[in-house]
Amino acid sequence: AIRDRGVTAPHLxxxxxxxxxxxxxxxxxxxxxxxFYLGATSKSVAFDxxxxxxxxxxxxxxxxxxxxxxxxAAVIILACLTTAVGLLTACGEFFSxxxxxxxxNVALGFTLFSxxxxxxxxxxxxxxxxxxxxxxxxxxxVLVLLSLADRLWRERRVFRPVMAVALVFGLADxxxxxxxxxxxxxxxxxxxxxxxxMGWVQxxxxxxxxAALVDRLLPVKR
Length: 222
Known about the structure:
Layout: H1 10-40, H2 52-99, H3 103-118, H4 122-148, H5 159-176, H6 186-189, H7 201-217
């Protein structure tokens, strides 16, 4: 997005990216700290709620009445709309280029798919999305960190084994967070920090150290 605005100098792209990240991180942190507080103090207001949406609705109705609910609905619509538009345009541009098809068809396909998924209800969405996200987070985190430390690696051969291990243990953590947790071997559940869905951390670090040593010992391909 920064490059699309005409900014091409690498140091400026980095600077503006950092500024954007800091603003987003502070804003999201404040939002989630407020949501943490609502969740921690919601027993008297929303004692029978099954998800965060119901807690938030009960809080707003209790405090501000019907007018508050209308304002909450407007805020959530605007917030979701900006996210939906951003994701649909980004996915449309990426997959239209990747699949060599029209942007319109890709965006329309994602829109219809999202429309069907969104009507499954928040509880069902959470039930399905949490294991998927838990499984994908290790890959995303490891890829970002390896890319940031790109100057430390002589060859890209460091990426493949580390990403492969992150994938295997990430999938195990994802299954542990799903209804199929009984099918996962006990080894994965007994790893350090497995209860926090972070059982992948130590195996990834071990493989990263080994891969980095191999990268230093093997000659650079010409």
